[in-house]
Amino acid sequence: MGDELRWAVEAVGLAGRVCKWVQQHPMGVGRVEKVDGSPVTVGDFAAQAVVARVLAERLGVGLAMVSEEDSAFLRQEAGGGTLRRVVEVLRQSGVWIDATGEGVIGAIDRGAGKRVPGPTRVGERHGAFWTLDPIDGTKGFVRGQQFAVCLAKVVDAQPRVAAVACPNLCADAARGVEVVAEDAGIVVAAEEGSERGVWCVVPGGEQAEVWAWTWVKREMLKDDDVSRLVRSGERGHSDRAGMERIIEGMGRVKVDQEADGQCKYAMVALGRADLYLRVPPRTGYRENVWDHAPGVMLVRRAGCVATDIRGRELEFDGVKLERTNGIIAGEPGTHARALRAAMELGIRGAD
Which of 304, 320, 237, 234 is nearest to 266 (CA)? Predict the structure, then answer.
């Protein structure tokens, strides 16, 4: 495996550890409102600071990142209390024991870009960058349920390295997505150029070098098997009516799993689910690059297929996926059935 994959796993593994600590303590879970009205938690800021710090140490000046959060709110008078809580969380969790306000803001700013860099080499259409969602599935995080820390390296509009930490997903698949145990927590990771499959990493202790890495190759379904769909626990994240029509049109689909964030992609990649389906919730809606690049990389390397609901290739060439309309990600046969149902029913998504 390559150095960048190891660094990515280390970064999200430590960030996941911070977030789980926050979930278990009352000082950090509550949401605050930024100036633009969008919700964010102490965990978001702490996770982004940790990931950016790890990557900056490993990559040096070569870090280019497009991510959800920045330090603007923390720099304001209204954000002073939140910044102090972020520092305290990082220290008490043991992930960054000498954290300071200045250090946190500096780390977040290292990973706070909102513009995809241009080509740096001959033959490239788009430059290389990392993209991060420090807490994907904020509502699940606040409820003490599933969420994810999601990181990917994108090269020429396609993810090439990905690591998704699922701090509340058990390594033992038999325990199910509903079980949030003290010993839960895995990182699902993949890189371009490896054999078909993904790594399932169980973080243990403070040193990433001793974490347990297991190679996972998911099984594909037979033609008459029932497909298992995993979907978001938040109804507002997708057009549920359109989704239900596609499910009914497919047939042989079991819908009994819900999870927030890119845990859904991780579950498909690991073979714990066979389909993740997202129908845009409203006209004109466009996905963010950090919400899908990491997860799409995982399912692709697991031998699954990911397109939009019109069957178009996904391109990660901007902060918004302007040419992407919804998501179908799944085991090949299941993906084909879902795409066929969407097309036959005339479900075209956000346009």
Answer: 304
